[in-house]
Predict the structure.
Amino acid sequence: MRFLRQSLVIAGKDLRAELRGKETINASLSFSLVILLLFSFAFDPTADETRAICGGLLWLVFAFAGALVLNRSFARDLPNDCLDALITSPLPPAALFLGKVMANMLILLTVEIFCLPIFGLFYDVNWTLQFGMLFLVLVLTTWGLTVVGTMFSALTVNMRLRELMLPTLVYPIMIPGLLAAIQLTTYLAVGQPIPPDYYPWLKLLVGFDVIYTLLGLALVDTVLVG
Amino acid sequence: MREKLTYLIAAAVAVLLVANLYNILLVLPDEANQGAIWRIFTFHFPSAMTAGLCSFLALIGSIMYLWKRNLWWDAFAVSATELTLAFGAVVLITGMIWARVIWGIWWAWDARLTSTLVSWLAYAAYLIFRNAIEEPTARARYSAVISLFTFPGVIISWKSIEWWRTQHPGPVLTIRGGGGMAPGMQPAAYWNLLALAVFAMILLSIRLRQENTQRLIDGFRRQAHEI
Amino acid sequence: MDSRNFTYMFYGFAAAWAVLVIYVITLVSREKKIHQEMSRLQKLIEEGSRK
């Protein structure tokens, strides 16, 4: 499919640019590790109560790291009119959007996978037991986060207050997805399987992803071109 | 002529509200378990419905703007969103006061309360965002997109008491299949719903007129500075 | 009638009305600002056309 190929080209371009400078991934990774460290001082890592909130802690870290990644997403193309060149090229804006979503998703997923062992160390939890399911939840939620975040990154790219407006807009919309992820991760990160009555949260995640991906693909044309 | 009609409708709404208030406070009895506090429901429920209605109107305005590119629709969308925030605030505050009495806590993080608060914050972010962009066409375009992204949150909030077991009470009105409220007490809530919904439409029309006038003024200002 | 519940009920009603009244007040103040701007513009245009 030509559309998919075009998206992959954009994703490849973003990832290559990122790997050359490594600014975003370094900033995001170090920020996440610092926050994890801070959390382990704020909440006693050995207490059972902390096990009960570990899903929330993890996803707070990932959400903040995600904001860093997403801010840079379209802003990276502002110098030298790169963004204008991309928009006026024959590339459909939806392909540009999808490519950036894929690139952001990969970057954020890498940060998350890096953080998991550190988290396991600090909080003494065995996250490898349910890794398959945990990875699925990570992928689904990260996709939702990057879809919504990349869309609003495109929206706020030309604003002065970009770094403030992006989180303000993204987090309220993300909360249903984040909530589902937190509920599921609280069990999976400590190695327990998901209880059967928690499966609706998984359905919520999938529905969330589908709806916002469709909305994003449909509306990014309006945002970028007009 | 339109002004007179607006005043007439506003007067009718005022009469309806006062009559209903008399009914609620002085005629209807207290509830068996809750005492007097059940009466808050007669404002809580209509405000929630009105806020939902206004958010739906904002959605319509946004879609129509993206389709027709007429800034009138953008004015419609922003007016509806402001009303959503106003009535949403009423819902949240009256709910918190009821909760303080019945549950003993001001707030709980169950699905209904969380999703409603989060949707309220999303619409507030919409207004904050609008202030940061001055160019009217770009502002209208971006706002419409944001509005389309915030509406699913309202749907989640509405459906939350069906999809999850929440601390927030399930449906109690007879038409929703719940049996939680005495039939004699329900008309008061419905009359308030009518009154508040019409009141919201009046405020919407006023705010819409102001927004359109502001647009005209901005155009004149540019002209005047050229002269 | 539990008197405590009655007090909270009044708080509830007062809060509901207060929010709506505050919104109406913002509408009224916005109207005033619009009128002020209108008259300022009219003066500006009259001065401009007189020149």
